[in-house]
Amino acid sequence: MSNNNDATVVHGVAIIGAGFGGIGLAIRLQQQGVHDFVIYEQAADVGGVWRDNIYPGAACDVPSHLYSFSFEPNPDWGRSYGPQGEIHRYLQHCSKKYQLAQHLKFNVAVTALEFSEEKGLWTIKFAGGQQAQARAVVLAIGALNIPQYPKIEGIEKFAGKIMHTAEWDQDYSLKGKRVAVIGTGASAIQVVPAIQPEVESLALFQRTPPWVMPKFDRAQSPVRQARLRRWPFIQKMIRSLQYLLAESVVPAFMWDSLLTRFGEAMGRRYLQKVIADPELREQLTPQYAMGCKRVLLSDNYYPALTRNNVDLLSSGVSRMDETAIYSGDGQRLEVDAVVLATGFKVPVSGAPMPVRGLAGRNLNDDWAAGSEAYKGMTVSGYPNLLYIMGPNTGPGNTSVIFYIESQIHYILQYLRTLRANPNEYMDVRPEVQEAFNEGVQRRFKGTTWTSGCNSWYLTADGKNTTLWPSFSWQYRLRTRHFVSAEYEFVEVGNTNNIGAESEIELAAQS
Ligand code: N01
After folding, report:
1. Torsion sign (Cα): 468, 471, 472, 476
2. I need a labelling partner for 7 at 20 to 30 A (CA). Which of 114, 314, 426, 447 fits?
């Protein structure tokens, strides 16, 4: 990051994060002839959560053909649901194929953002004390990247190994060890069956039993891969079918209705089919409306729980000491290692880093009661700042990549407008943002997400600031067109035509 030593480095666009969002936007900018951008990534490689979550069994629970860019289909997926390594390699492939190396700055942690009204520029501060400037900043940092460590009495005394699923230590072998796993969410249901065959014993500490449905995950044969390579339209058809199937569950997951009861009956039937022991089945039966928390897909989670070396403790965790962990009902278990599958600190309120906007406004203060943005991307008072996967744009049922591509489409229009107005900054009008969010929050009334379960989708006050409360195609329609009138254009001193070169190329292309 040598060039960051110079405080005068000014970029047209600074993208923060090289996961699906950052890489996708960078590719699209290049394709439009825009080259005046940089991607700051705090790690040493692209990949985001798919680089970081390397716990055994880590994989996607959205089908591979749908969980990839529409413009970069991959006929060679090895499984119907991509394992972590394959998805990581897919992003490395995208970065290489679209020649992003010259734009990527690795090992650069952004610690703060400050907007100058006078210059119409963002100052980006880095962990080493250096800084750079950019006309527009795109936060593509993802929402599920800060591990949530549970507060458990005595955890600091434990002398064995403690690993969070998102910070897996590959040098530590669980083979033959007595292991406790805390949590029964999306990460836990993948790690439990993956480590069960090699550990001596596995005690699974459950607080809330989740809804689990079969995944039907299959290896993809070389013949099938060759067929997709030869006839790409087949892959397009499969992707479209997968998309429609994912959309078809929205009515059941979203509105607490007869369809939800039907889904729950299917879930109970699957549980009955796999778990013969009525006591274990009772422990695993969810007590909340299906969809209120993420519905989990797995073919091997329930079967793993029937193995002799697995114990399910459904009273949660009460405390730990030097060598043991205690269940909520007082059982003491001596263990060698504890796996924390306890999820992430999700920024339902507050910004991921200090962000100072107009008149010294602080995004952390503005979002203290729950984050909100216009279409999940722009925030009034924070001009020329864009989010990918910001507030209320998370899907509970389909591929996040569909949302990311909708946002990229909108952001490209935003940035084009910004370049066309080189001496102005753009701030979304507060009344536009407010009306949008009132509409979003209204839609949550009567949904399963407000039916009483405790989930990371909600703030402490029960406001849902994470999910999009409708079909994903409705989000696509809402983000299709950028409307200049929804933004205030404010004149600043000359920005030296940052990005003008790209604009000339863009004009030449169109
Ligand atoms: O985390 P979670 P996750 N004592 O928050 C329990 C994505 N993801 O890492 O339900 C005891 O869902 C907690 O209990 P409860 C996906 O979006 C995607 O599993 O709060 N237990 C829960 O069981 C997902 O939604 C994939 O009562 C404690 C678990 O820990 C998101 O990541 C794969 C506890 C946390 O579940 C998060 O999933 C993996 C305590 N003190 C993850 N604290 C894909 O396949 C917490 N728990 C795409």
Report:
1. negative
2. 426
pLDDT < 70 positions in the chain: 1-8, 347, 349, 493-510
Best mutation site among 207, 467, 468 for ligand 1 pocket (most ligand atoms within 8 Å of CB): 207
CA 416 from centre of chain: 26
What average pLDDT is seen over the chain? Answer: 93
Contacts of 155 (CB under 8 A, 6+ apart): 162, 320
Q: Measured in angstroms, how far is the CA atom of residue 340 from the centroid of ligand 1?
A: 10
Q: At what angle do helices 20-31 and 84-97 cross, to 10 degrees?
A: 20
Query: Model-level pTM greater than 0.85?
Result: yes
Helix (H) / strand (E) element for 164: namely strand 161-164
For position 74, what pLDDT does the model report?
Answer: 97
Residue 144 C-alpha to ligand 1 middle, in angstroms?
10
Nearest to 202 by CA among 275, 304, 309, 340: 309
- Contact yes or no for 501/36 (Cβ under 8 A): yes
Q: What is the pLDDT of residue 507?
A: 31
Distance in Å, CA 384 to ligand 1 centroid: 34
Full set of structural domains in the chain with CATH: 5-46+100-146+345-491 (3.50.50.60), 155-339 (3.50.50.60)
Distance between Cα 187 and ligand 1 center (Å): 6
pLDDT of residue 349: 67
**Per-residue pLDDT reduced to its tens digit, 340-356:** 999 998 867 677 899 99
| Residue having the nearest C-alpha atom to atom 13 of ligand 1 | 183
Spacing, Cα 186 to ligand 1 middle (Å): 6
Q: To test the ligand 1 pocket, which listed residue (184, 215, 297, 346) has its Cβ within 8 A of the most ligand atoms?
A: 184
Lining residues, ligand 1, CB within 6 Å: 60-61, 144, 150, 182-188, 205, 207-208, 294, 316-317, 341-344, 454, 456
Distances in Å between the Cα of 5 and the Cα atoms of 53, 92, 413, 499 are: 32, 27, 31, 21
Contact 197, 186 (CB under 8 A): no
Residues 6+ apart with CB under 8 A from 267: 211, 212, 213, 286, 290, 295
Distance 331 CA to ligand 1 centre (A): 23
**Closest approach atom of ligand 1 to CA 166:** 9
Q: Encoding tokens for residue 39?
A: 């991607």
Output the pLDDT for position 452.
Answer: 86
Each residue's pLDDT tens digit, 357-375: 999 999 999 999 899 999 9
